[in-house]
Amino acid sequence: MWWIDGRGSTRAAGRQGDQPPTTVLASPENAQRLIGRWQRTDAGYVIEIRSVDRSGEVDAAYSNPDPIHVSQAVASDAGGALDLFIELMDIGYPGATYKLRYIPEYDALAGVYHQPTAGQDFEITFQRM
């Protein structure tokens, strides 16, 4: 479950499993808003969304600043919200995940980064570059 706090930031209520959504996009046109380059507001991490197909499969790249392998990326819009799930699979990032929600009022992606090696979750935000 997601909610927006009084400062306008989106947070995940409770820890969700690290599985991608299984829903097909109800509105593939809406998911096109994800296309672009997004930089994390607390660091130089960058997500580049190249395309989103009708099934919700996302062509994405991630860098820090060097490229990190994206093993899967999926968009979903269940309940009317536009969500993005990204899993990284690389040295130092074995199964790290992002669960993000597009916040149209801020043209931002906000959510949770899960770092499985450390067993920690971090609330993060990406701003469009």
Instruction: Give the N-to-C terminal Cα separation.
Output: 27 Å
Shape descriptor reads globular
The radius of gyration over CA amounts to 13 Å
Question: What spatial order of strands do you see in the largest sheet?
Answer: 6-5-4-3-11-10-9-8-7
Mean pLDDT across the residues is 85
Explain what this protein looks like in three dimensions.
The structure is a single chain. With 129 residues, the protein is mainly beta. The chain is 3% helix and 53% strand. The chain contains one helix and eleven strands. The strands form two sheets. Strands 6-5-4-3-11-10-9-8-7 form a nine-stranded antiparallel beta sheet, with no helix packed on it. Strands 1-2 form a two-stranded antiparallel sheet. The radius of gyration is 13 Å and the shape is globular. The termini are far apart.
Give a concise summary.
By secondary structure, the protein is mainly β.
Chart the SSEs and their pairings.
Elements lengths: L1 E3 L5 E3 L15 H4 L4 E5 L5 E7 L5 E6 L3 E2 L1 E7 L6 E8 L2 E11 L4 E8 L4 E9 L1
Antiparallel strand pairs: 1-2, 3-4, 3-11, 4-5, 5-6, 7-8, 8-9, 9-10, 10-11
Index terms:
globular; mainly beta; two-stranded antiparallel sheet; 3% helix; disordered N terminus; single chain; nine-stranded antiparallel sheet; 129 residues; 1 helix
